[in-house]
Every structure is written in structure tokens, then in C-alpha cells.
Design a protein that fits this description.
It is a single chain. The chain is α+β, with helices and mostly antiparallel strands. It has a single domain (4-312), classed as L-amino peptidase D-ALA esterase/amidase (4-Layer Sandwich). 22% of the residues lie in helices and 29% in strands. The strands form four sheets. Strands 1, 2, 3, 4, 7, 10, 11, 14 and 16 form a nine-stranded mixed sheet that branches. Strands 13-12-15 form a three-stranded antiparallel sheet. A hairpin with a 2-residue loop joins strand 5 (85-87) and strand 6 (90-92). Helix 1 (70-80) crosses helix 2 and helix 4 (236-246) packs across helix 6.
Length: 313
């Protein structure tokens, strides 16, 4: 995606991290929220009534609400380079962000800091970003109906989809769901809750919940968060619509999505000037989001007690 650069910062010991998307020029942003456990920064920047018309990047992070501290490192990096909304003698960067809960994996005292946010900015690249157990997906898990003992590894993944006339939509999603992950095309279960702690057989979380199964132990938030970027020209309201339609990708690849302990969040960024049909862009976003979710778990690596998709094979 021209005009977009992505960088990860990863703590492989504490098992957390953050992922930053920086824009080569100010972009237009929108956001969609699902579930009841969202934690975001900068939602007000995306309101069409806000005095600041643009944003300068976006952040995904682990660490639960503590991870929002990484935003300040991103802002410092941009300020040092004179990037942001001009306010008298200085600039103020605007960076919306979303976090996921990974405090129950690794060291619960390890959280993304402002230094980690700054470090992610220092390694941004226009190349295809690394996927799997890195950045905001470092401590991610899926299939937690019966707790971490029968869960699997989540991660971060990316995908893109084309609309027409050169319009493209990219998605980067950190997958940390209560539910399972399915292939968005075939519907086949890829990763999720397993039959027993050392088992290789996947259960069907949605079916189990319909039959009355209840989550065991502490029902902490388990959030899937992502960023959509397109070279289509959008207003703030249209960017929010694209984010809303992008949530269809959650429904295709997460089973089930948007639960009370999920804080599913999508940030949409418009970084181009190509005219496009907004519903078409949104449906392309849904396709990209669904495939990004599947790629995230397929690229993940295991922990001693939490297997990845590659281990089941």
C-alpha cells in the first residue's frame, strides 16, 4: 500500500508488543467498535465535528489499557520529525489506537511502553509486515472458552483486496479472540478451543456455547483489533462506514465474534485520492480482514503450553 509503513516492537520474554502504522501524508480516519470490552485512544479525532481533520498514524498494542502508553512514544517520534497538526509554534500528532488483553500470557507486568511505541516507529517499512507472534500479536491467543489450558496461539496477520480502477484495501489484524478462527472461504475450523489440554482435536466454540457451555475461570477481555487502509478518497463518515463493513470479516473468520468479553475494534484509514464506491471498499475490507485473521493464526508460533496451528498438523 503506497503511503503506508508498518513497524513492530516485540517483547519475546514478557510476551507483549505493539504495531504502528505511519502515514506518509495525513490521512482520514474512522473506527468501528463491537463487543463490550473495547479500549481505544483517539476516538474523538475520528469524529467529523473534530477541529483536526486528519490523523498521522495508528497503533495496535497488547498490555490491556496499560498498553495505550505506547501512543505517547509514537507521538514523540512524529513530533521530532515535525509531523502533526500545526498548532502555533509546534505540531500535535494525532494517532488513534486500540489495545488487546494479553496480561494472562507471559509476564503480566510486561506492557507496551512509550519507548516500545517509539521503537516500533524506528523500524517502520513499506514492505509487507512480519506476521504471526510479533508486535501487537505477540501474546495473542484464541479459543479460550475453557481457559488458556485448552486455547491456541493467536497473532497478527495482513491481507489485501482490490476493488476497481486501482483501488486497494489492506488489513492488519491482531487476533486475540474468545472464539475460534475459521477459514473465511471454506468455513473450516483452523484454530480454537481444543478437546483436552494436550489434545489436537478442535471443538466448535459456537456450538458448545449454544449447548450451554460457559467459560471457565476469570473472564478477562480478549480483544481482536485491526487497521484497514485504502487508497480510496473517503470522508470521516465514509471511513467509519468502511470500518463497519470491515467487521463482516470478523463474522466470517471468528466464531463467535463480538462477545461481551470481546472488544473488537477496526480503525479505517484513507490515504489516497482515488474515487471509489464506498460500499465496494467496505466489502473489500471485509474480505481482507477475514483473510488477515486466518493468516495471523497460521503464522503464529507456539508456547510450551499453548500450541499453534502448525503444531496441530
Amino acid at each position: 500500500m503506497p503511503g503506508i509503513r508498518v513497524g513492530h516492537a516485540t517483547d519475546p520474554v514478557g510476551l507483549t508488543g505493539c504495531t504502528v502504522v505511519l502515514l506518509d501524508r495525513p490521512g482520514i480516519g474512522g473506527m468501528a467498535l463491537r463487543g463490550w470490552a473495547n479500549a481505544v485512544h483517539g476516538l474523538e479525532f475520528l469524529d467529523s465535528r473534530h477541529v483536526v481533520p486528519t490523523v498521522d498514524g495508528a497503533l495496535l498494542a497488547g498490555g490491556s489499557a496499560y498498553g495505550l502508553e505506547a501512543v505517547w512514544g509514537v507521538m514523540r517520534h512524529l513530533e521530532e520529525r515535525g509531523v502533526g497538526f500545526r498548532a502555533g509554534p509546534t505540531v500535535v500528532p494525532h494517532v488513534p489506537g486500540a489495545i488487546l488483553f494479553d496480561l494472562n500470557v507471559g509476564d503480566m507486568r510486561a506492557r507496551p511502553t512509550r519507548e516500545m511505541g517509539y521503537a516500533a516507529c524506528a523500524v517502520v517499512s513499506g514492505a509487507a509486515p512480519e506476521e504471526g507472534s510479533v508486535g501487537a500479536g505477540t501474546g495473542a491467543t484464541v479459543g479460550k472458552l475453557y481457559g488458556l489450558g485448552r486455547a491456541m496461539r493467536g497473532g497478527i496477520g495482513g491481507a489485501s483486496a482490490h476493488v476497481s480502477d486501482g483501488v486497494v484495501v489492506g488489513a492488519l489484524v491482531a487476533v486475540n479472540a474468545v472464539g475460534d478462527v475459521r477459514d473465511p472461504e471454506s468455513g473450516e475450523l483452523i484454530a480454537g478451543a481444543r478437546d483436552v489440554a494436550d489434545g489436537n482435536r478442535l471443538l466448535d466454540t459456537a456450538r458448545a456455547m449454544r449447548a450451554g457451555a460457559r467459560a471457565l475461570g476469570f473472564r478477562a477481555p480478549h480483544t481482536t483489533i485491526g487497521i484497514i487502509a485504502t487508497n480510496a478518497s473517503l470522508t470521516k463518515a465514509q471511513a467509519a462506514m468502511v470500518a463497519e463493513l470491515g467487521m463482516v470479516g470478523f463474522a466470517r473468520a471468528l466464531s463467535p465474534p463480538h462477545l461481551g468479553t470481546d472488544g473488537d475494534t477496526l480503525i479505517a484509514l484513507s490515504v489516497g485520492d482515488k474515487p471509489a464506491d464506498v460500499p465496494g471498499v467496505g466489502l473489500a475490507a471485509a474480505e481482507a480482514v477475514g483473510h488477515a485473521i486466518a493468516r495471523a493464526v497460521r503464522a503464529a508460533t507456539s508456547l510450551p503450553s499453548i500450541p499453534a496451528v502448525r503444531d496441530l498438523r
